[in-house]
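step=predict obj=non-specific serine/threonine protein kinase n=885
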Amino acid sequence: MAATWHLLLCYLLVFSIWFRVDIYAETNSQDAAVLRSLKDQWGNTPPSWDKSDDPCAAWEGIICSDSRITSLGLSTMGLTGKMTGDIGGLSELVSLDLSYNPGLTGPLSPQLGDLQKLTILVLVGCSFTNSIPSELGNLSELTFLALNSNKLSGKIPSSLGKLSKLYWLDLADNQLSGKIPVSSSLSQGLDQLKQAKHFHFNKNQLSGEIPSEIFSGDMSLIHVLLDGNKLEGNIPSTVGSVQTLEALRLDRNSLKGSVPSNLNNLTNIIELNLAHNMLSGALPNLTGLNSLNYVDLSYNSFQKSEAPDWFSTLQSLTTLIIEYGPLEGSMPSETFSLPQIQQVKLGNNAFGNELDVSGNISPQLQLIDLENNDISSVTFGSEYNATLMLIGNPVCSASLNTVFCRIQQLGKPYSTSLTNCGDKTCSNNKKLNPQSCACAYPYEGNLFFRAPTFRDVSNASLFQSLEKSLWTKLGLSPGSVSLQNPFFNDDDYLQLYLQLFPSNGKHFNRSEVQRIGFSLSNQIYKPPPEFGPYYFLALQYDFGDGRGLSRGAIAGITTGCAFLLLVLAALGAYALRQKRRAEQAISLSKPFASWASSAKDSGGAPQLKGARWFSYDELKKCTNNFSEFNLIGSGGYGKVYRGMLSKNGQVVAIKRSERGSMQGGLEFKTEIELLSRVHHKNLVGLVGFCFEQGEQILVYEFMANGTLRESLSGKLGYLDPEYYMTQQLTEKSDVYSFGVVMLELIIAKQPIEKGKYIVREVRIAMDKNDETHYGLKERIDPAIRNTPNLTGFPRFLELAMQCVEESAADRPTMSEIVKALETILQNDGLNTNSTSASSSTSEFGNGKDCRTHPYNDSLPRKDGSESNAFDYSVGYAIQAKVEPK
């Protein structure tokens, strides 16, 4: 019998002895463990999280159903920290909102893609960085995705095209680059989002051409916002086929060429903004766009022409802007008679002759701006009372004192009136409630409207309608809303300052702030239609409990206490030095606070059984600063160093994880707990660990020639199918996982379901003695495939298949597996008495057949003809994660 086949059976025999480990302690549910881990990793969590061990019963921001967490909403809580992979363990989560927490930094966790039931993901106004994880494309139930106003970079992942139920996609105000992804022969793209109504990609660094595939007649797009990018090329003619479009913003790019002639097919369009590009050819024909309110074609290179006919026919037009345009000839006076027209801004064109404003002027008209044209005279009528600006025209050369030839101030921007409050003022960052004139702490921030249908920021009735809609739809007291300083910013968005006041008392509570924040971040609140699509960026809120203080308040407190702190530090310096090691031990235990809390529910916290905490400085010292001289192995997980403990001189192997391979805190704790329980004469023992200064380090007993753990993997991530119904792990669950290991040893890391099919196919081929078919060339692990005289292989296949039976009752027990393996070995002439396991494993440990370094888990070569091919088939790192996949 070939040595490789013997090694395979020896491995599995020994593995079957130690595999039966109690990996599931009686603790709170998985959701509770995840929440406790997140609490350890985040700062400024709500105070209620410190007062109870039961998230569903008492934690603010948590909504549960049948004891499972279905909603996590922590908008505007002042959270700090990073998003780790632990969050992927909330398998029943439907809604996740962490908006308006600028203290949340770092990359988005790819484990977000594990939240298979998630329908709402809102992370607006945080400080997340790096690229958008492609794993978000796995969220098949997602309908609302808002990642705007972060610091995300890289490309838009094409995998988002798999989100077939998505209707809201907002990636605006980030640093995203590259092309807009569309479908190819290899992947889906955003053109597959047929149900999407909102593409908000504005204020990024997207480049390349706008793909024609992004527009089609079977899409449902309402708002397409691509402004403020680096897009090039022509506007695709397919845009005219999306007749559902209401707002199209392509301004502030580098688009060129002619505007598609079929643009007037967009009969539902309300806002069209093509300004600040390099478009050429004729002005677009907008005839028939009877819903159009706002159009801006400024700063392009259109060919010279007279005013088009649609200047006088678009009955819904409120705002007409073509500055630095190609217009010449006479300005049509019919434009000023359009029933909804409010502003006409046509400065820096070449209009000449006489300007006639003597006809039937619309009462809505507030501004006519024709600065720097060639107008020589003006005729007024009695009905005209709007602002007229003609500076830079010949008509002003002889009459500089005329009102329209001087710089004029437009109407004062609207602000909510506080006249009823008289001269009353507030202190300590409190503000006056315009409804009650009481001093309180408002929920406040900046509100941005990306495509309003008007330009008049002095229109009181319009902004009062916004105030009313806010207090009505957000469930506030009438009049408890303040709007201040509306203006059009450099992005051509309407920006204003919003304050919302509590109905009772001086503060909102946390639940109220979360409710309001979610209503604004998740677009539940809908403004009056004139304001169009919006987004909100909240400021940190002062809850009055010492958290969420403003920077000014923090600075004041810090200054006031500085002297006292210095005195206390000087007096306590000696005592602090004496207690330093004790405090280090306490700080090391903080990441594992969930173990202590679980004791209340399980009758005792899980025991580490001898594994101890090490400080990072201690391990750094015993490895001579992790020097290359002490490096004894490396792989995908990181590097392994030889070290000597200073206390007792014990030689240890120190496995230091690389940054890119780190687990979440919960996963790391699970692995430590698992490894601390495994005790066998053929297995290396866990001495301790370090979880400090961003490091994840495991300390093992040192074995010069390697251990079984370095070559055999327990794929604990594959769980018993019955677990999904019972939520219980049993001995038969371990058998199922063990069977997965057996299959993977045979089929070289194929997926489990495919592995079952392959094994059945191999078994049938062997029964037929079909050696050609039996080869199965690319399917079976080459180390097994190329081994002659596999006498016990058919029985081994049978055993593997029995272990992964769907029903637990049909699987063998662990003791039966051990007997079966011993029988296979005995039939092949291998001694399996009480010492057989240790001797055979020791033989491997001595390095007679294993040619990789004992502490290397790298994958050297995948060629089945090489002698180390067997190492490749089993050289995965142990996964301590025990949640379903």
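step=describe
The chain has a mean pLDDT of 79.
step=end
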